[in-house]
Amino acid sequence: MSRKLYNTRVTKTNDRKRVERWLLKNQNYINITAIEKEISAPKGLIQKFIKYDKIIHDKWIAPLHEILKSITSFGLR
Fold first, then answer.
1. Cβ 25 vs Cβ 72: under 8 Å
2. What is the pLDDT of residues 26-45, one digit of tens each?
3. Mean pLDDT across 38-60
4. Residue 53, by phi and psi: left (phi above 0), alpha (psi -120 to 50) or beta?
5. Alpha-carbon gap, residue 9 to 3, rounded angstroms
6. pTM value?
7. Domain spans, the chain
8. What is the DSSP string of the chain?
């Protein structure tokens, strides 16, 4: 396996773990619907993950990761 492909897979796996861990840890403090609307995700995507342990599809991990980075950064815009 090429090094570039390996690094991409590792990054995707790490992003998924970060997103899932952050959502579970902060579920009581976030507006789930607002996050879903921000990334144009299907309604209930995050709620189903949190409540029913349904896996979030890979195509939503990158947009969620970007939103969570912007939420957790305290820099001025």
1. no
2. 999 999 999 999 999 999 99
3. 96
4. left
5. 10
6. 0.81
7. 25-61
8. --HHHHHHHHHHHHHHHHHHHHHHHTTTTS-HHHHHHHTTPPTTHHHHHHHH-PPPPHHHHHHHHHHHHHHH-----
